[in-house]
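INFO batch 0412 | record 1 of 1 | parsing
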Amino acid sequence: MGVKRVAALDFGTNSTRLLVADVADDGTLVTLDRRMRITRLGQRVDADRRLHPDAIERTVDAVREYRVAIDGLGVELVRGTATSAARDAANRDELFDAVEAVLGTRPELISGAEEGRLSFAGATVGVADAVGPGPCLVVDIGGGSTEFVYGAVGDGAGGPEAVVSTDMGCVRVTEQFLASDPPAPDELAAAISVVRVHLDDVARAIPQIGDVRTVIGVAGTISTVAAVEQGLAVHDRDRIHHFSLTREAVEDVFRTLATERAADRRHNPGLDPARVDVIVGGTLILATIMRWLELDRMLVSESDILDGIALDLARR
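INFO prediction complete | emitting tokens
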């Protein structure tokens, strides 16, 4: 059986992440290194439609660190994808040029649909074994966008059948609506109203959403809420991956975080200090989605777009 050593990089709106893995011909993925740095690439992109120089520099700093890890592990293939912030920025080539100079590989600008497809591929690894085959919905709450991907899992499943990418994410919602510390009730209400409008669009685009048996949540906001709910002082991937996150727990975490000042919020175990200023926006999106779906619980996956990129790259 052949094995390829690959590196996947995700240039997201809020974070820049790396996965180095060995991927076998049968799709088995063994993680060798996984890293994340909050780089806030989407800083003011929603308002300015440009990447801020400081945000580019933070991202390139992370890539310099990742290049050392990639070289040290003898990686054969490298792929980096850029998502919402880069899609919205007129000067994205400034970032791509700087990253290519350090990494030797130019990031790919991917569409929301491709982002959703890759997230679905990563998030559904092993899900059929955990919950059984059938239709599922993957929800990927990012910094600038949230993807909804409908498809089946299990033997013979053909992958995603419908993908919708919406312009709502923890950074975007925070910058657009949540100016006060803590957010004022009218700011929260306005943000929830806009999220609901997006969700109505999702329902029209994915009418099968009512058939969903399993909802899988991925990315930083959802993992953070799961960590806060469990009071994890230190990140524990094993305790977060496939954790059953209830709507009651989400509502409780949302109420707590949304009513605390940032200086107090940062003391919640499980909350990365670098997410303190955007976690209310992300949790607001999550809580609104669960209300809208009338969802009792969500399966949290620590496997996400990075794993999807790695699997896709190994098949090339």
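INFO post-check: The mean pLDDT is 91.
INFO record closed
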